[in-house]
Design brief:
By secondary structure, the chain is mainly beta. It has helices at residues 6-20, 90-93; strands at residues 24-30, 35-37, 45-48, 51-55, 62-63, 66-67, 76-79, 82-86, 95-98, 100-103, 106-109, 113-117, 130-133, 138-140, 150-156, 169-171, 178-180, 189-197, 203-205, 209-214, 224-227, 232-236, 241-244, 246-248, 253-258, 269-271, 276-279, 288-296, 299-310, 315-318, 323-326, 331-334, 336-338, 344-349, 361-364, 373-381, 384-395. The protein folds into 4 domains: 19-117, Sandwich (Immunoglobulin-like); 130-214, Immunoglobulins (Immunoglobulin-like, Sandwich); 224-310, Sandwich (Immunoglobulin-like); 312-395, Immunoglobulin-like, CATH 2.60.40.
Length: 396
């Protein structure tokens, strides 16, 4: 190995020092993600990650579009750029957070991240009595508190075990409501909705809803589909999708089919008593129109909806590179992302959206020193947004 001469060593050390001290705009190394926090007596802090590098060092944060002032808002503090929320409150501290990294060269904004809290208590207000004829259908509303990541159950007359679903009784895991297709005299009593947080296993209970069954018997009628899946549902590859279908009236049978006549995939799970069809590990061949058929002695009814294979989340196929440009030069930046549906584009300069662009292409003619700064291309569709950033340095 060749030994360096003193003057060669001096030049090498100078170059290293120069590179280490290169001044540049902020660049994210870690961005915040959507988060659901279990809110219990033990949870005193919420930590939201965000880190950026830059020289000079950058600093940060926003919630729901407004700047967070850590000096005047004691619940918020910064830990090496990450945001710490002490003693979080569901109403005051849930929201959409965005990390802002800025220094003398410009500003970039991170992707937006929702911060939600898993479960609150029910309103303890007494619930009105429900009067229903024997043989009639009834729907009992759960009216859950704000929540994320939960499971619904119902308790009948304070029993220790939860109410069992069958062909006559159904609990929707979308709304929490309890559906009884045909009321019997033995259904009279008090019904309590129970909501369980799947993260902490904590359960909260509603006030009881009294149900009184009148003895004037209701006549029979054709099934009315009260619980049904959406008309259109986009499903990503590999996910498990559950379709709910339940009908009111003299207890109907529920069956499932594909509208194109093809047989249902063998992997499909159907719970005939609870009216739920589950398709695990969704694949392109699972896409199509599905139909739920409810039938009793008085007639039949059909609900249908289309499952669409969602190819992929947004991702970049062409991003940006930092540019060093001379005054009066022309610049054209272009970014491209793919996803379904096709994304729309917008551009930000130093975190502000005041730039005119066409189809993801930014053009600046006859650059001036005022054009220096941090630029971001944002591609977004109904499923989310992705951000790409770059720095423009203008030299005389």
């Amino acid at each position: 190995m060749k030994m360096l001469l003193p003057w060669e060593l001096l030049i090498l050390l100078s170059l290293k020092e120069c590179l280490a001290n290169t001044r540049h705009g902020p660049v994210f190394t870690q961005e915040p993600s959507d988060s659901i926090f279990p809110l219990s007596t033990d949870d005193k802090q919420v930590f939201i990650n965000c880190k950026a590098k830059g020289n000079p060092p950058p600093h940060y944060w926003k919630v729901d579009g407004r700047d967070i002032n850590t000096e005047s808002e004691p619940n918020y503090s910064l830990v090496e750029g990450n945001l710490l929320i002490n003693n979080p409150h569901v109403i005051n501290h849930g929201g959409v957070y965005q990390c802002i990294a800025t220094n003398t060269f410009g500003t970039v904004v991170s992707r937006e991240a929702k911060v939600q809290f898993a479960l609150q208590n029910f309103n303890r207000k007494s619930r009105n009595m429900v009067s229903v004829r024997e043989g009639q259908a009834v729907v009992l509303l759960c009216g859950p508190p704000p929540h994320y990541g939960i499971k619904y159950s119902w308790v009948f007359n304070g029993q220790r075990s939860f109410l069992q679903q069958d062909a006559r009784r159904f609990i929707s895991q979308r709304t929490g409501n309890l559906y009884i297709a045909k009321v019997e005299a033995s259904d009279e009593g008090n019904y309590t909705c129970a909501v369980r947080n799947m993260m902490t296993n904590a359960t909260v209970f509603s006030s009881p809803t009294p149900v009184v069954v009148r003895r004037d018997v209701m006549g029979e009628y054709e099934p009315k589909i009260e619980v049904q899946f959406p008309d259109t549902l986009h499903v990503s590859k590999g996910l498990s999708v559950k379709l709910e279908c339940f009908a009111l009236g003299p207890v109907p049978s529920i069956s499932w089919r594909r509208a194109d006549g093809n047989p249902l995939p063998g992997k499909i799970k159907i719970n005939h008593s609870s009216g739920v069809l589950e398709i695990p590990y969704f694949r392109p061949e699972d896409a199509g129109v599905y139909e739920c058929v409810a039938e009793n002695s008085r007639g039949r009814n059909v609900a249908r909806g289309q499952l669409i294979f969602h190819v992929e989340h947004l991702h970049w196929v062409q991003t940006l590179k930092d540019a060093h440009m001379a005054i009066d030069a022309n610049l054209q930046w272009e970014c491209k992302a793919i996803g379904k549906p096709s994304p729309a584009y917008r551009w930000l300069k130093n975190g502000q959206g005041r730039i005119h662009v066409e189809a993801g292409r930014l053009t600046i003619s006859r650059i001036s020193l005022l054009d220096s700064g941090m630029y971001q291309c944002v591609a977004e569709n109904e499923h989310g947004a992705v951000y790409a950033s770059s720095e423009l340095k203008v030299v005389g």
